[in-house]
TrEMBL record:
Residues 94-139 are annotated as: Disordered. Residues 98-130 have a biased composition (Basic residues). One of its GO terms (cellular component) is 90S preribosome. Pfam families: UTP20_C. InterPro entries: SSU_processome_comp_20, UTP20_C. The gene is Utp20. This is UTP20 protein. Residues 1-116 form the U3 small nucleolar RNA-associated protein 20 C-terminal domain.
C-alpha cells in the first residue's frame, strides 16, 4: 500500500497531490510512530522514503503544515482514548477490575517466561488451566 501511495503521489504531481496529502500522510505517520515489538523494519524504511519523496514533491512548508496536522490529529485521538478509558473505569468498575486482573496475569506470565529464558534449568510454576473445570457441567 505504501508503494502504491508513493506511485500515486508521483503520478499526480505537485499541484494535484495537495488535497490528498493528509490522507496519504496518516498511515505513513502511524507506521513511523508505532512501537510494536514485531514491527517490520523494511516497512518503516519504506514509509520514511515516501515521506522524503513527498517532502521534495510538495515543498517543505506545505509538507510541514500537513505533517503537523496529522500529528495533532493522532495526539488528539490518543488523548480521547485515554480519557474514555479513565471514564470507563469510573462508570464500569467491574470491567475495569477484569481488565486489571488480566493485565496482572499477563505480567506474571511474562515474568515466568523471562525467568525461563534466563535460567533454562529453572522451571517457573505454571498456573493450571481451569478449562476442563469450566467445561464440566455443574448441577
Amino acid at each position: 500500500i505504501f508503494k502504491f501511495l508513493g506511485a500515486i503521489s508521483v503520478d499526480l504531481g505537485k499541484d494535484r497531490i495537495r488535497p490528498y496529502l493528509l490522507t496519504i500522510l496518516t498511515p505513513l505517520y502511524r507506521e513511523l510512530n508505532s512501537n510494536y515489538a514485531e514491527q517490520d523494519p523494511t516497512l518503516k524504511n519504506l514509509s520514511q522514503e515516501i515521506i522524503e519523496l513527498l517532502k521534495k514533491l510538495v515543498g517543505l512548508e506545505a509538507f510541514s503544515l500537513a505533517f503537523s496536522s496529522v500529528q495533532k490529529q493522532a495526539n488528539q485521538k490518543r488523548a480521547m482514548r485515554k480519557k474514555q478509558r479513565a471514564l470507563q473505569t469510573v462508570a464500569n468498575p467491574d470491567i475495569a477490575a477484569r481488565r486489571k486482573l488480566k493485565r496482572h496475569k499477563n505480567k506474571a506470565e511474562t515474568r515466568k517466561r523471562k525467568i525461563e529464558s534466563l535460567r533454562p534449568m529453572h522451571k517457573a510454576k505454571r498456573h493450571r488451566s481451569q478449562a476442563l473445570k469450566d467445561l464440566a457441567m455443574v448441577e
